[in-house]
Amino acid sequence: MRQQPWSDAQAEHGRILVLSDNPISQAIASIATAAGRDVLVEAVDDGGEGLEPRAGDAVVLCDHDAPDAPRVLRAALASEAAYVAMMASRRRAAGLLDELVAEGVDVTRLHVPAGHDLGGKGPGEIALSVVAEIVAESYGRPGGPMRG
């Protein structure tokens, strides 16, 4: 009998909440949906009504220049979200991080830049690295090659 390398049993995972709507967030939604995750892309730059992280959710801020980025990050970092990330280089995110730290927000859980270092440059490749990091985190894994 041939063994299958996958399991039909689906683990329970939180949602992936993404702000805002752009090519990277659309690619995240496509890849994460294919991986069996529920995704909410909030198109409104102010965080809209939908970004209320629950335990186990992943929050990805795909636009660090969104008007309500600080509020979204504050709420995500104060929540029981399992993963909180921002698409930006550390240099570009420095001002926002400094603002949050000055307010007393603990940013140690914040993944900046979001994703694994795959070297990709296009929206789909960047999204793949973010979804890979979310999946790895949800299983308590560091990511990286499986070969030993």
Automatic annotation (TrEMBL):
The XdhC Rossmann domain is annotated at 17-134
Protein known as? XdhC family protein
* Top-level lineage group: Bacteria
The record's PANTHER family line, in alphabetical order, gives: ALDEHYDE OXIDOREDUCTASE MOLYBDENUM COFACTOR ASSEMBLY PROTEIN (PTHR30388), XANTHINE DEHYDROGENASE SUBUNIT A-RELATED (PTHR30388:SF6)
Q: Which organism is it from?
A: Nocardioides astragali
